[in-house]
Hints:
By secondary structure, the chain is an alpha/beta fold. The chain has 3 domains: 4-63, no CATH class; 77-240 and 429-445, 3-Layer(aba) Sandwich (Rossmann fold); 251-418, Rossmann fold (3-Layer(aba) Sandwich). The chain contains 16 helices and 13 strands. It has helices at 4-10, 16-28, 37-40, 48-63, 67-76, 102-113, 134-139, 153-162, 273-285, 297-309, 325-332, 348-355, 372-379, 390-401, 404-417, 426-445; strands at 89-95, 119-125, 144-147, 167-170, 190-193, 208-212, 227-231, 261-264, 290-294, 317-320, 337-339, 360-363, 386-387. Helix 7 links the parallel strand 2 (119-125) and strand 3. The radius of gyration is 22 Å and the shape is globular. Pathway: Protein modification; protein glycosylation.
Amino acid sequence: MKHYARSRALCDWDDFGRWQRQAVAALADPDAAALSPFHLLSLPGITAGEQRRCAQRWMAGRLEASAVDRARLHDEFDLALRPARAGPIRLGYLSADFQEHATALLMVELLEAHDRARFELHAYSYGADEGRGMRQRLQARFEAFTDIRPLDDLAVARRIHADGIDILIDLKGYTAATRTAVLTYRPAPVQVSFLGYPGTSGGDFCDYLISDAFVTPAAAAGDYSEALARMPHSYQPRGRHGTIGPAPTRASVGLPAEGLVLCCFNQAWKFTPDVFDIWCLVLALTPGSVLWLLGDRQAEGQLRQEALRRGVDPNRLVFAEDRPQVEHLGRLQLADLVLDTLPYNAHTTASDALWAGVPVLTCAGDTFAARVAGSLLHAAGLPELVTDSLQAYADLALALAGDPPRLGRLRQRLAEQRLSCALFDVPAYARDLEALYEAMWQRHGAGLAPVALGAGLQRTTSPPSN
């Protein structure tokens, strides 16, 4: 697995079948080096249970050196001795992504919709401000915004504890630049994983995982070390007020004047040979169609070569340049159908497409990361675009590619319900999330252990605001 990440980024698939076998063997060998939990999310054939074992081993190996400090702080942070405090529940959001980042783009309207009378928001930020305005918008919503970059994890834990945070919410998990290890010091009475990492922490330091009934069915609870706190629709927030730029001309973005535009703006490391086979089959059987992909200089040449190997003219792959979010949403309107990846689905990329009015076709797998697009499509009112096998995915992709009127009807339906469907109803989403937070806090106050929450939540969507 030494060269796995680089090979996936390059779409160099020569060893693809071997990677899965090596990962399974490493997980079964107690003497093998721990594997990155994040890398396993995009590897076919890995179960959610195996992802849990991987995460548990990964974090355990990184905590040995700090075991003494953590034991001391657990005593220092004896939460049972913390005096009761009146007033709103204090939420602490921990992230490196309080900037123009996918997490912030998803969360900003949610944070603005939180009930200030019932919740007091604190941010603990360890990412730089890229200067594009999102940081300032977010700062305005927090009661306190603390830059923790100069502090080590021990000092961060002490700061969070001193601030009296009731519920600490980690927005990173085992993604790049993570500081999830802060949670292992237990600085807050209740600790939650939310949004940034589509999997389990594998440890006993995170009490709840925010999910929904589609991404984590009840039968999958044993694959997660956290209690599942399930939203009634999708776990992912997405607001109604993200500006969509004007649609550019096809020529200006490198698309042909005519022909079906199939699209996947997922990062190239999510691509797999099996799914790419299907994309090329659809291209081959749909004359004049193109596949519109996110530009990636290190992978473009390899992807063109893979298309050629499958009998497809490499020039039918069109690569899009990186653009600001408003322009990106505007150009998405030129796509006819988004084709998703498996086992790591489109996440923010899928809700971007749906907000821009473009249908998304997905194949749902067995893990959290493999079921996100399905969750979004159910919340958007398009469940018929969720398939459960690659064969069904291929069949539906071919059917839709060959039936433009059917695609048009799907697009029209999405346009008609976009402002009323659950996926983009952030005010109602905020109330549901707050109900979960309050249930967590009530259980803690009653001395009860974390337990699955959310099964009884019911709501209707709220009307769109003017």
